[in-house]
Amino acid sequence: MASSPSTTNPPLVCWNCHERTIGTHFCSSCGKVLQVPEHSDYFAMFEMPRKLWIEMSALEQKFLQLSWKLHPDNFVNAPPAEREISLKRSSELNDAYRTLRDPVARVEYLLAIEGARKEGQNKQQAPPELLEEVFELNESLDELREAKASGGDTANLKHRLEGAEKNFQAKLSEVDGQLQAAAHQWDNAVGSDNADLRLSIKNNLNELLNRRSYIRNLVLNVQKELS
Question: Are residues 83 and 15 in the same domain?
Answer without folding.
Answer: yes
